[in-house]
Each structure stands twice: as structure tokens, then as C-alpha cells.
Amino acid sequence: MSKADLSRLPAVEKTMQALGDGGGAGLPRPVVLSAVREAIDALRENPEAIPGFDAFVATMRAELARLGRTRITPVINGTGVLIHTNLGRSPLPGDAAARISEVAGSYCNLELDLDSGERGKRAGYLDRCLALASGAEAATCVNNCASALVLILRHFVREGRHRVIISRGQLVEIGGGFRIPDILLASGATLHEIGATNKTTLADYEAAIGPETALILKVHQSNFYMGGFIAEAATDELAALAADKGIPFCEDLGSGAVVDTDSFGPVEHEPTPAEILAQGVDLVCYSGDKLLGGPQAGVIAGRADLVAGIKKEPFFRALRCDKIILTALESVAARYLEGRTDLPLLEMLAAPVESLRARGEALLASLEGHRVEASLSGGLARIGGGTMPRSEIPSLALDLKPTSMSVTKLARRLRLGTPPVMGYTAEGTYRIDLRTVFPRQDDALGGALREALGHA
Ligand SMILES: *Cc1c(COP(=O)(O)O)cnc(C)c1O
Questions:
Q1: Pick the CATH number of 76-88+347-453 from 3.90.1150.180, 2.40.50.100, 1.20.1060.10, 3.10.20.740
Q2: From residue 455, how far is each of 19, 100, 163, 375 by CA, in Å?
Q3: I need a labelling partner for 422 at 20 to 30 A (CA). Which of 58, 181, 243, 412 fits?
Q4: Ligand 1 atom 13: the closest Cα is on which residue?
Q5: Rounded to two decimals, what is the model's pTM?
Q6: Nearest CA owner, ligand 1 atom 10
């Protein structure tokens, strides 16, 4: 590369001035500066690609706008997937969110006993509520269900007693490359696989138990299902066997509904922690932000002596939740104990199709004259998030065929709009499932659609 080429490199300060405050995207100056420097460094490596100054500034502007859109922002979920991991899983109830903003911006009694003025027990009240909601003697919570599982395994695994018995049908990938066997190994356990992928019997468990057995683990099949020639040992029989042999028995429930979600919508029955613990299982763990409808967390519930032991693990300290999560979870757990089920997730699940239709008609009317063939069609919403793969919930979708742009372009415009909208494409039509759109978002959705369709 020649010096002459490099002399055409855009100057950092001049670029910063041309971009203006916040790089045109409301970004902090050091963020803009680092992006500009990176871009100039890349051109230094590839001088033939050095553009004119104005073109460079225009590219930077687009780049910074893209960067700005990676900041966390609310999105309208038109995918019909209620628990969408990419969209932040469960939306919190309004008063849980309000409690967060109250506590987050203030000091609080996180580890202070207001009665004595002494150091207090962190999350003592929450643990009590979680235990009651889980039908358990005791409960606690950590960062997420994956860490709950690691913590449980670390607690039971020790030298000479390190084998964790698990059925081959349960060595599953939970999602995002997170696999049960890897978790087991990461916690220092040795896998003791038993049975076959489609069949594992009580006798298989019985034959496997030995002096090196640390734990029997069952993993709830929450994101797939098996049919045909299959068998699994019954939980109550397995619990009796474990108790007889003095081996702890734990079930990873994953999704963690503490109420019968099948009474809210046409979905398969999801075992509750209380149902599983009543069968004699020693410990269960489940996610806070799946069917529970709370914040990201992992609840551990079951025998009081085991929960107390787990809380004494040094690793527990590394996985604990912060005050914001604890506040939100406390609010959600208390809600269930009051018999209230007005959580966004459960309300969306329960919404009758007729109520979606009324909202859909209003949206259709607001799109008249906006270069789109719009209609309503029956959609199928899903729980998602690796939960209840067999449950399809009758729903209603807004079907859009733009007349002046492609479906792909419409989808992109909606994603880049304010607020961003995420729908899906099926059979050449852009669809927005109304079950996962909050009624209070309908006006904003209509506005975003008109904006996206408005100019060709
Ligand atoms: C989702 C899931 C997990 C992981 O839960 P996170 O809270 O995301 O860590 C673990 N086990 C099962 C069975 C799951 O479905």
C-alpha cells in the first residue's frame, strides 16, 4: 500500500465533527469514537476501499444507527410465540415492573432486618413465598434454571460419589446449545446413562444404583416429545426406589408452571412443582421467566435440609440474584399466593379468539388506503421457549400483502420502526399474531404498520 493511498484516510476528528453529537444516534461519544476508529483502521488495512469523505460519513451514520438499535428496547411481539427467548421471554406484570422501579432507584432492606437493625436474611420472605407456591418445605432462587441445576449437582457430587444417573431419553439439548450432558460434566459429575433413548424402566435405575451414585436426575421433556414404542419409569416409583436406597432424586422441570396452565388455554398439562414433589421427589428446579411469568431466575424447591445445604454452597454466592430480580420475583410469587392469575403471560394464553377478532377488525380499518391487502386469518400461537411443543393455541393473525413493496422489505421496515414489530412470514404473506400483542399496543402497532406501508 502506498503513502498516497493512506493520506486519503478520513481523519478521526473531522469525522466526529461531521457526525455531530451522539453520532446522530444518541450514542455516548466514546462509543462513537471507537466505532469511527475501528472503521478507519479497517480502511488502513484495505486502502483501495477508502471512500470519499462524505460517503464515509454516510456509511458511519448507518453503522452507528445499527449499533444504536442493539440497545435494549421494547418490541411488539407479533410472532405468536408467548415465551420467546429472543424477545426476553415472559413480560412481567405491571405492578412487578413498578416495584422494580421503586426499589431499583433507592436503597432497600435487602440484607437488613428493620426490626432489630441488624443484618437480615437476604430473600427470606421470597424463599417462603416460593416454597408455598411450589408446594415445598423450602425453596430458594438463583440466576436461572441452568445455574440451579449446576448448583444442585455440585452439592451432591463428591469424590467417590460422583455418578449421576440419567435416562438416555433425557440427555437433551435445552436450547441455545445448552445440553444436559455438558452441564453434568461441567459440574464435576460423571454421567451414568441408563436405558435406551425410547425406553427406560425402573429396573434400569435399580440396577444402576451403586456406592458411587450421587444423584438420580430426571429432566422434564419440555421442548420435544416422543411417541410410539416408549416407556419411562413412573416418578412416584422412582422416588420410592431413591428413598429406599438413600439416593437423592431431583427433577429439572424447566418451564415451571405453579398453576394449571391447561385451565387457561388448550395446552397440554405441564406438571407443577407441587405435583412432582408430592410424588416424593426430593428437589425440583424450574425457570422464573418461562411459564411462571416472572424475571430470569432459577427456583430450587423441595426438602428443607437439602435446600439449606445448597444455600451453604460457596457456589451459591456466585449465582445469587440481585435486588431487582428478587423484587420482581417476590411480587410474582405473592400474586400466585393471593390466587391472582392476572399475569400477562396467562392473560395472553386465555384471551378468547373473539376478543382478538374485535381488535383485528379495528386494525384492518385503520389500514384502509395504505397500499396493502390486509385480512384476518386463523393463526396458531405457541408457548415456545422450549415449552409444550405439542400445544398449538387457536389464534388470530393480521395477514398483510403489501402492494408496493416485497414482504421482506415490509418485515425489515417494521423491525426498524418505532416501536420495532416482529411478525413472521408464511406462504408469501406477512403475519402478525395478535395473541402476543398487548391490547394497549394496538394503536402503536397500527401506527408502525401505516408508517412502514406508507411510502414505497
Ligand atoms: C429452559 C430449561 C432449562 C434452562 O432454564 P434457564 O432458566 O433458561 O436457565 C433447564 N432445563 C429445562 C428442562 C428447560 O426447559
A1: 3.90.1150.180
A2: 27, 40, 63, 20
A3: 58
A4: 254
A5: 0.94
A6: 254
- Work out which ligand 1 atom sits closest to the CA atom of 289: 7
- Ligand 1: distance of its center to the CA of 337 in Å? 24
Q: Ligand 1 site: residues with CB under 6 angstroms?
A: 144-146, 174, 219-220, 222-223, 252, 254-255, 287, 298, 386
The confidence score (pLDDT) of residue 231 equals 86
8 A C-beta contact, residue 278 and residue 137: no
Compute, in angstroms, the gap from residue 313 CA to the centroid of ligand 1: 21
Could you tell me the distance, in angstroms and rounded to a whole number, from the CA of residue 287 to the centre of ligand 1? 6
- The DSSP line for 119-173 is B--TTHHHHHHHHHHTT-SEEEEES-HHHHHHHHHHHH-BTTB-EEEEEGGG--E
For residue 371, report the distance from its CA to the centre of ligand 1, in Å.
43
Query: Among the atoms of ligand 1, which is closest to the Cα of residue 146?
Result: 9
Q: What is the pLDDT of residues 76-107, one digit of tens each?
A: 999 999 999 999 999 999 999 999 999 999 99
Ligand 1 atom at minimal distance to the Cα of residue 147: 9
As a whole number of angstroms, the distance between CA 338 and CA 335 comes to: 5
- Residue 95: C-alpha distances to residues 98, 294, 322, 335, 444 (Å): 5, 12, 18, 10, 22
Fold type of domain 94-340: Aspartate Aminotransferase; domain 2 (3.40.640)
What's the pLDDT tens digit per position in 316-364?
Answer: 999 999 999 999 999 999 999 999 999 999 999 999 999 999 999 999 9
Cβ count near 405 (within 10 Å):
16
Question: Cell 428496547 belongs to which residue?
Answer: 73
> What pLDDT is stored for residue 48 in this prediction?
92
Please name the residue whose Cα sits nearest to atom 15 of ligand 1: 254
Element (H, E) at 57: helix 53-68
Written as one letter, the residue type at 207 is A
Task: Tell me the residue type at 333.
Answer: A
| Average confidence score pLDDT of the chain | 94
Report the C-alpha gap between 327 and 255 in whole angstroms. 21
Number of H helices, E strands in the chain: 18, 15
State the amino acid at position 446 in one-letter form: G
- pLDDT for the residue numbered 454: 86
Q: Which ligand 1 atom minimizes the distance to the CA of 287? A: 7
Give me the pLDDT at residue 456, please: 45
Contacts of 127 by beta carbon, 8 Å cutoff, 6+ apart: 138, 139, 140, 141
CA of 170 relative to ligand 1 center, distance in Å: 13
Q: Give nearest CA residue, ligand 1 atom 6.
A: 145
